[in-house]
Amino acid sequence: MEHRKIETAKTAHLHRMVMPGHICPYGLKSKWLLERYGYRVEDHHLTTREETEAFKAKHGVKTTPQTFIDGQRIGGYDDLRAFFGKPLPEPGSTSYRPVIALFAMAAFMAAAVSWMMYDRVAPACDNRSVHRDLNVLVGDAQASRC
């Protein structure tokens, strides 16, 4: 007779704001983190400001989302990261990721426009046809300054 190991899924209860026009980004991050670590998430939406305030008063917390595992309150998103042993950002630290992403996107868009206009990604002033186009647009004197 063959014995199979039956695993019970770990379950977490997540209480987060999901309102018309607003979905809490930290609630989404918490849900994703729990699922990434193999938890089945019972997702409890707080759909009104009154419901959210009542939940916070009942549990003595200042923020949502709040995660509960095995009946124990873990806390908000940062507390959940700590629970899983993930590094926490330093208080007051700055992330430059959005700025880097913005500049990278601008560079890719510039390269795409250059490719579309000139069939290659290159500075505009080293292509004779571009000089010809500039002469038409701004005159010979200004185009020669490239």
Give a nutshell description of this structure.
The protein is of the alpha+beta class. It has helices spanning 25-36, 49-59, 77-83, 97-118, 128-138, 140-143, and strands at 10-19, 22-23, 39-46, 66-69, 72-75. The chain folds into two domains: 10-83, Glutaredoxin (3-Layer(aba) Sandwich), CATH 3.40.30; 97-143, no CATH class.
Q: Can you offer a commentary on this structure?
A:
It is a single chain. Strands 1, 2, 3, 4 and 5 form a five-stranded mixed sheet that branches. The protein has 146 residues and is of the alpha+beta class. The protein has helices spanning 25-36, 49-59, 77-83, 97-118, 128-138, 140-143, and strands spanning 10-19, 22-23, 39-46, 66-69, 72-75. A hairpin with a 2-residue loop joins strand 1 (10-19) and strand 2. The longest helix has 22 residues, at 97-118. The protein has two domains: 10-83, Glutaredoxin; 97-143, no CATH class.
Which key phrases capture this entry?
2 domains; Glutaredoxin; 146 residues; alpha+beta; 6 helices; five-stranded mixed beta sheet
Largest sheet: 5 strands, mixed
Distance between the termini: 83 Å
What low-confidence regions span 5 or more consecutive residues with pLDDT below 50? none
How do the SSEs run, as a string of H and E?
Answer: EEHEHEEHHHH
Count of DSSP helices? 6
Which fold name fills CATH's third level, the topology of the largest domain? Glutaredoxin
CATH H-level homologous superfamily name of the largest domain: Glutaredoxin
How would you sum up the global shape? elongated
As an assembly, this protein is single chain
How many runs of DSSP E, i.e. beta strands?
5
Radius of gyration: 27 Å
The name of the CATH architecture of the largest domain is 3-Layer(aba) Sandwich
What number of domains?
A: 2
CATH class of the largest domain: Alpha Beta
Structural class: alpha+beta
The overall pLDDT, averaged over residues, is: 82
Strand content: 15-25%
